[in-house]
Specification:
This protein has 31 helices and no strands. With 835 residues, it is mainly alpha-helical. It folds into 4 domains: 152 residues, no CATH class; 193 residues, no CATH class; 222 residues, Methane Monooxygenase Hydroxylase, Chain G, domain 1, CATH 1.20.58; 159 residues, no CATH class. Belongs to the COG7 family.
């Protein structure tokens, strides 16, 4: 049996638990007494072994203590001895340091004197050498050895820099400049011959000569001058071929074609857009050949030399290039082709009145820009080994002819959109005869509704043109143009809406209103007969046409909202593509221009082919404005077209006002003279029988209004179905129809209540009749699920109550059910004294 002694060391050791546990672990056949006896024996033996081991280890430890004490004393003596030795060494080092410092200071002075003496000696040698070189330089030039002459001039330059500004050598300095110019002139003819005949060795030798005298810039200028001529000839061949073609045709065809040419001078010309790709191909082929040759002839300079050639070429051709682009854009439209003018001429105002920038003009410009973009991509591939800044400058030069057009892009787009909006058929409605007003109204509303998607398509096309032509660099200008154009379009809709008011008959006042309504205020009986007529088909067609105007407002609101959301998403994509954070930080580091090394490299590396970045890098102020807009576009509350958004909401409000005026106008017409009806003051008729002296039926004016209100839901149903089919939201459409129904019913109730307040006196017969009229209108409102206004119910209660019981009614009610001011008014017109 094994015994675990670990539990004996536990602080919470319980002997009883341990004995019980040991007893439970015995073999079932063993007795408890035998098991405990064996356990006691084993514990006693183990305790004796532990005691013996402890005695043995204690004795050994006591014997080791004196030996450890002796070792400690010996180590302490050694430490004292070592500290004494170190102190002596430090004292010797301090003495040596003092004497060494004095020696080093003396040696430094000696070394300074030595260096000055050596410099003076070298200067004297340079001065002597400069005098000797100045005397022998003419002989070197006379020998015709250009490398030796370059070496001599370089040595003279070195000597002059060594002697400094010494008055005695001022004439030598002037002589050196003249000699360097002279040597450069001697090199130029040989350099021209070597470059023209592709003599690599000669070019390299001449290059070394120019570098030796610090005139490498001359090599760049000379190389550019020589190789610019073939490219310029390619460009000028276009004009030459055009003139030759024109002269040949005139000579061959005679006067007839000559007259045609005068009337349309461009019809016989080769289109610039057809010739430009071939020009780019030839230039690219020429540059590829130069790149390969310069890699051999100028292995250290070709990465900047060939791009420099293209930059200088584009700078030379820029003005003429811009002019050709301008004329090419004008050729696509007959009006400008006949005048030999283009977009820039139209924008400058140098054109006959009425000539406008058209979409075809801008499309032609974008087509040319795409050709240049393809050429720029090839150039980027060809010059991929060049520095990023060199590549950036080169591509900016390639796109430079389009800079004037991009600068005026906002004006171009505004002119195009304004012209396109003006061409949309939004003729105002014209009042027509009976039977044709509904048709005129419906046709005008149809034109308004159909124009909305047309305008959205035009705006979307403008956004696509902006991205295609500018890469988004003019997005801020585009937004302003779109906002202005939307204002122009909504203003046109507002004007059309004004013309609809006359057609709908809701803008007539005074005598005209009386004639339009067909009422005569002098004859109450005539008025009663007039209002008895029901709504005819023409009136309902006007109502239905007016309701359709709501779809115009709904369509304008939804379409403009979707377009604005799409525009905001486009701006967000532009923010990403232009690497806004990197470019913005570069601009912040340099407020005047993006010329910081790290920032500029980051921009070039990320957007070297981005036409927007190529334009923005030179106009940091514009870039900041654009990036501010792009930052704001990330907020969902941002309105890309802020003024247009406000005007759309205002237009919707105007439409709602017009529709309400139309829907309520017929009610207003029938209720216009209710307060002056003679029935209110009519006396009771005397008869021999106990018959009621009032009509049991409501009067025609109120039944006409009731029938109109009950029929109105049927008129709103087609409109609700149209909204439901468009928005797939039946509940919203039903709510829309119910809202308008309630609005008209509330308006009718308000008009009726206003008329009731205008009654000055009412007889008992009139009170009974008015009570019947109010009860009918209340039933109509209940049928429309509208609550009965307290004022109207008070009128009905007070009028249906006999005159002698009205006072008791008011006392018993106490204002719980009745509207007290209205009840007092009824008492006043019924001549009931409440005092």
């Amino acid at each position: 049996m094994m015994i675990d002694l670990g539990s004996f060391s536990d602080e919470k050791f319980d002997p009883r638990k341990w004995i019980n546990a040991a007893t439970q672990s015995r073999h079932p056949q063993d007795s408890v007494e035998k098991h405990l006896t064996d356990l006691e024996m084993k514990l006693q033996m183990m305790s004796e072994e532990i005691a013996a081991s402890l005695d043995e280890q204690s004795s050994g430890a006591i014997l080791r203590v004196p030996r450890a004490s002796r070792d400690v004393i010996r180590l302490r003596d050694d430490a004292v001895s070592l500290r004494s030795s170190v102190s002596g060494i430090l004292l010797k080092l301090k003495k040596a340091e003092g004497s060494s410092a004095e020696s080093i200071a003396a040696l430094a002075k000696v070394d300074t004197v030595k260096q000055r003496m050596e410099a003076a000696y070298e200067t004297l040698q340079d001065a002597a050498g400069l005098t000797q070189l100045s005397a022998s330089v003419e002989d070197v030039f006379a020998s015709g050895d250009l490398p030796r002459a370059a070496e001599t001039l370089a040595n003279m330059r070195h000597c002059l820099s060594a002697v400094g500004e010494v008055a005695e050598f001022a004439n030598v300095r002037k002589q050196l400049e003249v000699l360097e110019d002279r040597l450069e002139e001697m090199v130029q003819p040989r350099l021209s011959d070597a470059l023209s005949n592709r003599k690599v060795d000669a070019v390299q030798d001449l290059r070394q000569i120019l570098i030796r005298i610090g005139r490498f810039k001359s090599l760049e200028l000379h190389y550019t001058k020589i190789h610019l001529k073939p490219i310029r000839k390619l460009w000028e061949d276009f004009g030459s071929r055009q003139r030759a073609s024109k002269l040949a045709i005139e000579k061959r065809e005679g006067e007839r074609l000559s007259n045609i040419t005068e009337s349309s001078p461009n019809m016989l010309m080769i289109p610039f857009s057809s010739w430009l790709p071939s020009f780019y191909d030839e230039v690219l082929l020429y540059l590829e050949q130069e790149w390969k040759w310069c890699m051999i002839a100028f292995p250290d300079d070709y990465r900047a030399l060939v791009p420099k050639l293209l930059i200088e070429t584009m700078g030379t051709l820029n003005a003429n290039f811009v002019s050709h682009i301008n004329l090419a854009t004008g050729e696509v439209v007959p009006e400008t082709r006949s005048l030999v003018k283009g977009i820039l001429d139209i924008l400058s105002g140098d054109m006959p009145k009425g000539t406008k920038v058209q979409t075809k003009h801008l499309e032609a410009l974008i087509e040319l820009h795409n050709m240049t973009g393809a050429f720029a991509r090839n150039i980027q591939h060809l010059f991929s080994e060049s520095d990023l800044q060199v590549l950036l400058d080169t591509l900016k030069a390639v796109y430079s002819p389009y800079a004037p057009y991009k600068h005026k892009y906002g004006h171009m787009e505004r002119a195009i959109l304004s012209s396109e909006i003006a061409e949309i058929d939004l003729r105002g409605a014209v009042a027509r005869g009976v039977g044709a007003q509904g048709i005129e109204l419906s046709e005008t509303v149809r034109r308004m509704e159909e124009s909305i998607p047309q305008v959205v398509v035009l705006l979307e096309a403008a956004v696509e043109r902006c991205i295609s032509f500018t890469g988004g660099s003019e997005a801020d200008e585009l937004i302003l143009a779109l906002d202005d154009i939307m204002l122009q379009y909504i203003s046109a809709l507002q004007e059309t809406l004004k013309s609809l008011r006359s057609v709908c008959g809701v803008d007539i006042t005074g005598e005209g209103a009386k004639k339009e309504m067909g009422t005569d205020r002098k004859e109450g009986t005539h008025n009663a007969r007039k209002v008895d007529t029901s709504f005819d088909e023409e009136e309902w067609s006007i109502v239905q046409g007016a309701l359709q105007i709501l779809t115009v407002a709904d369509c304008l609101t939804s379409r403009s909202s979707v377009f604005e959301a799409s525009l905001r998403a486009t701006l967000a994509r532009l923010s990403t593509s232009l690497s806004l954070s990197i470019f913005g930080s570069s601009l912040d580091q340099n407020q005047s221009h993006v010329n910081d090394g790290n920032g500029e490299s980051s921009l070039a590396g990320r957007a070297v082919l981005d036409v927007a970045a190529l334009r923005l890098v030179d106009v940091p102020d514009k870039a900041r404005r654009l990036f501010n807009v792009l930052d704001q576009s990330k907020d969902t509350r941002f309105h890309a077209l802020p003024l247009a958004s406000q005007r759309v909401a205002a237009f919707a409000d105007t439409v709602n006002d017009l529709v309400y005026d139309v829907l309520i106008s017929k009610v207003r017409q029938r209720l216009s003279d209710v307060s002056r009806l003679p029935i209110w003051s009519a006396a009771e008729e005397q008869n021999a029988f106990a018959l009621p002296s009032f009509s049991a039926y409501p009067q025609p004016y109120v039944t006409s209004v009731g029938e109109y209100l009950l029929t109105l839901p049927q008129q709103l149903e087609p409109l609700a179905e149209g909204i439901s089919s468009n928005d797939t939201n039946t509940e919203e459409a039903q709510f829309f129809a119910t809202e308008w129904m309630f609005k008209v019913a509330e308006g009718a109730t308000a008009l009726y209540t206003e008329q009731l307040r205008g009654i000055q006196y009412i007889s008992e017969r009139g009170a009974q009749q008015l009570s019947a009229d109010i009860e009918y209108l209340s039933n109509v409102l209940s049928a429309l699920s509208m609550p009965i206004p307290p004022i109207l119910s008070t009128y009905h209660t007070c009028l249906s109550t006999p005159r002698d019981q009205v006072r008791d009614l008011m006392k018993s009610d106490g204002g719980t059910q009745l509207d007290l001011p209205t009840a007092h008014l009824v008492c006043k017109i019924r001549r009931v004294n409440l005092d």
